[in-house]
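FW: tagging you since you asked about this chain on Friday. Here's the raw sequence from the shared folder, copied in full. Didn't touch anything.
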Amino acid sequence: MSALRQPLPAEILALIFHYLEQEDLYECLLVSHLWHTEAEIRLYSDVTLDALQENSTLLVQAVKNRKHLLRRVEWRAFDVGVILALDLMDILLDHRPPADDNGDINTDYLFSFIKQEQEDYYGTTTPAATTTTTALSHPLGPNRPALTHFSYSGSDASWRLFDSILYELTTLVSLDLDFAREGWATEAYTIDMDKILDSFPHLRNLSIVGWMHKYGSTQTTRLEDVSHLSLQTSDNGTTNGSGGIRQHRLESFTFTSLLMWREGSDAFTFFSRLANLREIVIRSRASSIEAARRSRPWTFGRALKRFCPKLESIDSSGQVALWLFDLPILPSDKISHITALIPDPSPKDMSGVSARQVQPATKTDLATRLRDQEWEELLEGKGGVEPFFPQLKTLILGWDHTLSAQDLISLGAQPQFLTHLEINYQPGNPSYVWGMHDRDAADVDEDVMFKPFNLFMESEDKLIEDRRLRKRRKIEDQDVMLFLQHCSSLRHFALTKYNIPFKNLVQGNDNDNNTGTTKKTTAVGAEEEEEEKEEGPSIRRWACEDTLETLHIGFEFSINEPEQHRLVWNHLGRFKKLTCLTFARAPLHWDRLALIPSVSYGVEGLLNGGRRGEGGGGGSARTLQEIRHLPTWWKVEDRGAMVEWFARACPRLMVLGLEHKREYVDGMKRNPYTTFLEEEGVKQCSILDVFIE
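HL: got it, structure written out here
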């Protein structure tokens, strides 16, 4: 019995307390001295300081007495007053204002901060004032917390106080900054990247977001001054250049597109100190024309290729002018293979109308020929195409992204290490970013105006010139399919918020081309494709069928064409390692529904790996562990039987998420079909979690 009375080790308590809610941790404070100590660490190691938060005064007083426990602090600085400023400097810096003649706190010292903040806020000082750090005249105390993570979000009403505090937190490993706009603020906070790198030698993760900031630098190193340096990694994990540049430890960097708008030869030289960088996250709220006018993706890409050899992950969303590949501009005297694609003049042209005044149908034909020719060149690696990020493993493209079709196809032809790709929906509105070209290239005139591509407004000469300048274009269904047919290293692929029409999936349709762009398949794959061609339409094989583990994709079909559904189920059965399958939500059109999981619609294709006439037990069914957004609403009486079928067919399936669809019953909108989840067969099946999404 005495052994049972022994307290749990502190390490075990720490693991348990990690999962407790704040209310439970307060209860644990009253149990024992040991529990009090461990609960206190959990409560006060990670805090949020916000003057507008409920009970903020009590929290501040508690933290001031336990600041030695602080490791993570989030400061929401949208309301700064004298008392809050006093508390912040006490908590974060163990700094107290000097006493006045009566021995009381000298509030004039703090009022100097607040007064200057108000002058900056209402525009009574020059913009340069926001770039100067206010010195703390009183020495810092010895009980400063050893912070590892610091997060700041605030407006220009707190920037001077923030500036005085930030650069004293030298132990940080992670720093998140969000510069927001509030009220009539017009001035932006100036960020000195070199100063940040110098002030935080242990920093691994840096995030600078918001829209009220700009980039400056105290150093004037030009790009050509560091272009000759080679980087070498030292024993302590940092890197030294042959020219003596000390490399920083930073591994993850989140920033806005404002960074990519920097001008001058020293715009991206600070990357010469970031040889350990592995991940970048880019966010943008700019318009497409602003991004096109102010960005230089060719300079940005070349700088990162030169200075950041370990970069392997890119996450981008919004109008970001980001190029993944360097597509050299073709000299004007080296485009005979392009001009040879111009159609012969029509009789109408021969009667006196200029051959350059091409009809829309002829323009479409020329644009298609140019696209097919470019496809072939990109897939065969012609034209000196080089990746800016040769070690790229993960690429995430968020909403309103501007990745071009050329970059996507080149990525499929030269994947090397790419294993994770997420493509979010691209809105239909035109983007000026796709009309960009390398304006620093020799013998190229800068555009007077950036224009989004419009086939009906382009002349034949303009189409040829855009092809010569290697201008990008928007991603289409055919580009996505071509990428999947050539990228053999993918393990995770997601195409969200978009459904691919069936006509763009099958081979032998009008969208296929005969320019040699088909990937060479294995002997077995080629034989299977020939058999499928003889039997009718088939879906071209993907190069990642042996490696893909998670797939998020949507389709559009006609509910009156079961053969279309059968072909896709057969295709999904080809993947040998697929563990998670997520369907995009069904389209709103009743005549184009999502993939139907029914025997009459060929769902058995999951069992036989896409091969006709074979027995069950093969294909993706034997590896699937999770299926999400599976349509269930087309036929009420089949829903319970469908769940039981998946339980039998997929022995490893643990999670089955069923798509939610409201129905009208007796003139009222209800959800009557959810009752099938209470059927005995469904409740007793081997799937652990069956639910409505």
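FW: The chain has a mean pLDDT of 78.
HL: agreed, and The radius of gyration is 31 Å.
FW: great, closing this out.
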